[in-house]
Every structure is written in structure tokens, then in C-alpha cells.
Amino acid sequence: MLLKKFASYNRHITITTKTNDMETPDQLKEMVRQKYSAIALQDKDTNASSCCGATSTCCGDSVYNIMSEDYDKLNGYNPDADLGLGCGLPTQFAKIKTGDVVIDLGSGAGNDCFVARQECGPEGKVIGIDFTEAMIAKARSNAEKQGFHNVEFRQGDIEKMPLTSGVADVVVSNCVLNLVPNKKEVFKEILRVLKPGGHFSISDVVLVGELPDKLKNAAEMYAGCIAGAIQKEEYLNLIRETGFTTVTVQKEKAITIPDEILKDYVTGEEAKTFKNSGVGIFSVTVFAKKDSCCKPGSGCC
User: Fold this and answer.
1) What is the CATH number of the domain that holds 253?
2) Which end of the chain is flanked by fewer CB atoms within 10 Å, N or C?
């Protein structure tokens, strides 16, 4: 057995795993499940201060905010539900209307669900899905404290959602699909659960160009969202191939890996080469729509 540290930049959890635990999708999921179960038991400040271990001070401030965005100005924001795990503000771009049914994939402690609830109002409904039991418990506790009766949280795998078809007006997700081995299956599930004419707004991490193998293959970088990311064009093509239309990048932000992270994986010369290579890591928020009608000849139109 080998102790490995899984670094997600603004939090760092040490868990025990076998050297080859990242070789299969199920093992990848279990690694992420363990990591986020540990994160669920900490608050945002603790997650940030423990990026290099619970008692370490090796990380600079630049590490803490590589991914996360500032929710403070969004209506419905609940600091107790913000663990600093996102890479965008999908609810800000999701075009949620009063009365909408909104699904949040990888809902964590409920942060985006509570912002979505503010948008859809008491007439609407928000359902958060997360496969980490500890996160579900934390989210339910946060909802109960606020007295929210139209927000619910279901434990499940977003590759096989615990939802009937055609129930959602809007789907949102924040920095979650990059951790899922089978992204195509998730997009198929999103298409299934959306109503005709429904849409999604998803924030995620994508690549432009190939990362050096030392970064791409490192377990730490995977748990930190980067080595689990795919090429930007591949990501957008997956959405189109699934059957979505009006595929639009609503926001794009370059992400710079600080020297504090790079030095653990590459030499100084390798880091310099990487920085000058034109390879890019980006946080993107992507919008796409499900057609209002089924394909011609299907009998639904």
C-alpha cells in the first residue's frame, strides 16, 4: 500500500490507495469518492489551508484560488455550502426562470443548488445529485437550516441518474464532469432528463494542447481536475454528438498552474518549456440546448 496525496489546489487530502488504483473507471470513482468524503467534513477555510497537508504551510496564496470563483454577489449564496470546489459560476449563465425544475450534477454541500433556488423561486424545484454520502448529508443539513422545502438531494452516479426522463428544465454542474471517467454517458443522461427545449449550463476544466505526461498521469493532478480534463474541442464535440444544439461557450478563463504545484512534478527547465509551449488549461462554462421536438418520423412532433 502506498500513501498518496491528492491535491485539488485549494484543498489537499491524504488517503491510502494502491499504486495502480487509477487504472479503471470504478477505481477512479472510488478515489474521488474518498477524497470528497473527507472534504465534506471540513469547511472552506480548512480545505484551503490544508492544500499541502493539514499542518503544512507550504502553499502560497496563489494556489488557493486557481479554480474557484467568487459567489458573494450572487443572490441565494450560502457560505456554509461553499467548499471552494468549483471552477465557474454556471448558475449565473443558466437562464433559470421562475418555476423551473433545475438539476445540479455533483451538488456537493449544496452551493449551486441554493443559488439556483433563488432563481427558480418557491414555485420551482432544485434537485442535487452527488455520489458521496457525506456530501449529501451536509447538503441536506444546510437545506434544513435554511428551511428550504423545494430543494432535495439524491445520492447517485451522474452516469446513471436517479431521475425519470424529461423532468428538468435546466441542468447545471460546476467542475464535476472532469472527474467522471465516462463523460459521454453523462451527456447522454443530461439529454435524457431534460425536457424538450430544456438546456444546460456547465462549468468545467478543459485543455488546449497536450499536457506533459508527468502532469497528466499524476494522481494528484487528476484529483485536482486537470489530468481528468479532455481537449476543449473534444469536449464540445461530445456535446454535439450527443444530440445537443446551440452549443456555446459562455465564459472562458485561462488557468495558470503556480510554481508551487509545478515543482512537485517537473524540473525547472521542464516547467519553463511547459509555460512557453502554448498548451492551455481553461475553465469554461458551456451552454447547450435539447431540441423542442424529437427527430422527424418518431411520432412525437
Assistant:
1) 3.40.50.150
2) N
Cell 427545449, residue located: 197
CA distance 125 to 15: 36
Report yes or no on 139 lying in a domain: yes
Kindly state whether residue 299 falls inside one of the protein's structural domains.
no
Q: For residue 262, count CB atoms less than 10 angstroms from its CB and return exposed for 0-12, middle for 13-18, buried for 19 or more.
A: buried
Contact assessment for residue 277 and residue 244, using Cβ atoms and an 8 Å cutoff:
no
**What residues contact residue 240 under an 8 Å CB cut-off, 6+ apart?**
247
The DSSP call for residue 78 is: -
d(CA 280, CA 264): 19
Inside any domain, residue 297? no
The pTM of the full predicted model, rounded to 2 decimals, is: 0.77
CA 206 centroid distance within chain: 12
113-170 tens-digit pLDDT: 999 999 999 999 999 999 889 999 999 999 999 999 999 999 999 999 999 999 999 9
Question: What is the distance between the alpha carbons of residues 140 and 153, in angstroms, rounded to a whole number?
Answer: 7
Query: Domain of 204?
Result: 2-286
Neighbours of 178 (CB within 10 A): 22
DSSP string, 82-137: --S--SS-HHHHS---TT-EEEEET-TTSHHHHHHHHHHTTTSEEEEEES-HHHHH
Total number of domains in the chain: 1
